[in-house]
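Recall the central idea of this unit: under ordinary conditions, the amino acid sequence of a chain determines the structure it adopts. In this exercise we apply that idea directly, starting from the sequence alone.
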Amino acid sequence: MSHSPSLVPQISTDRDVYLVLDDFGRRLGRAWCETAEEDANRETLLRHLAEGQYLHPTRIVAFNTAEGWSRDATAEIADELRRRFVELEETDPSLLEFLERAARH
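Accordingly, the structure predicted from this sequence is:
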């Protein structure tokens, strides 16, 4: 008898999830970016920001539904990127703009 693949996600639900609010300009406005479940973690987010994968990131929200919390993680992520900034040889303009906006708030 063959086995059907599991419908249960392989990723633990007890983990921190990070989402980015991106600004697509006056005409399109702001939207929460689609993110694959396995890419909604802190390290991937930091890498994507450093690579310039967001147009104009304006806010980052972190949450953990298993633990029942959520928070604005914008300043925390910006601070971590600033600490790692020395490691980045070429920096995408969208990252520099994000760091400047986060510093003002």
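Helices lie at 42-51, 74-84, 93-104.
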